[in-house]
Amino acid sequence: MSISLKLKHSMQQGSWIRKMFEDGILLKNKVGSENVYDLSLGNPIFEPPSKFMDLLKEFIEAPPIGLHRYMPNAGLDDTRSAIADSLNKETGLPFSKDDIVMTCGAGGALNVIIKTLLDPKDEVIVLAPYFAEYFFYIDNHAGECVVLEHDSDFLPNLSKLDGLVNEKTKIIIVNSPNNPSGVVYPRAILDQLGEKLKKLESKYGRDIFIVSDEPYRKIIYDGIGYEHIFSSHINSIVATSHSKDLGLAGERIGYIAVNPTHHNKRDLIDGLTFSNRILGFVNAPALMQYLIKHLQSETVNVKKYQENRDYLWSRLQEIGYEVVKPQGAFYMFPKSPISDDIKYVEELRENNVLVVPGSGFGSPGYFRISYCVDDHTLHGCIKGLDKVFRKNI
Ligand SMILES: Cc1ncc(COP(=O)(O)O)c(C=O)c1O
Q1: Among 2, 41, 109, 393, which is most exposed with the fewest C-beta within 10 angstroms?
Q2: In this structure, what DSSP letter does residue 42 have?
Q3: pTM of the full predicted structure?
Q4: Percent of residues, the chain, with pLDDT higher than 90
């Protein structure tokens, strides 16, 4: 065997979404793709905003000299300044370009942060239900992953936090709006988390960072405001991207923002910049950096995602599914009417509906539906969801 046993094992562990994807291809070949309702992926349905296309044309017609060359590993000064200005407006905090590192998406940002903070065997707490890639990202940098359970609203069960933290704990990853539940964490939860961590930091004599993974920050509904992490905990770092809010997932553009009030931020930023380089990212894609500096107040059509959410949530309620109403991202996480979510998802697949079992997100007994899909898929999936529900109650 040529690939490592460890990697082989990881591939088997992390194969849910891939399995659904592969099963979906087989099913589409068998029954015709128009008869398969694939709600398993979080791939943006929208093209980037028209301003992106206009800027792209301008660049092609008159590219700045040196556009395609290497640059400082943290990214272009102008882009980092534009992001800092935008964060100043959003948070009221004094961000400067020196608090920002441009990255290859949120996934790249998370790897850079974890690499920078962890010593071997340090522990990272993730909150169920979680984005499954966290396990691999943590393992990439020789860390250990520890899971904190959720309550019935998919908020972290903070009463269990003290029991999970020890002298090896270095990071807790927060993801709001959450993939897969769509839940947006309220201020009270973030503040409670910050207060608890402050006490635990003095108990164990080390910094414990909140890493806030926010690629869905601008995809929120019902006019609620986004609650930023920075005021809840001084040791906080944001990892985010424009994969979802500008529909640029394939372009791999994102950034890290360090809490501007952090006491040792120069050291932190130097470490992050170095990690960006030695992980082989070197710097975030140059062309995208030039473009997104002008797009900090743009988003794709969030209203349409909200309409999809409303449609799907109402239909699921009518059928009888138990489901928390999401306030952000483009996922819903209903309870499976039978405890075996894998079996339930299998039955849905037999009825041409593709979703992902909650087991893949550390929450068995649920399944994830992505409503980042076209209308044909959104409307067409209801029949199968209804039929399989009735069969199992
Ligand atoms: C919660 C979460 N974090 C990070 C990522 C990675 O985002 P990116 O494509 O910007 O690397 C995703 C992508 O789906 C995600 O859902």
Answers
A1: 2
A2: -
A3: 0.97
A4: 90
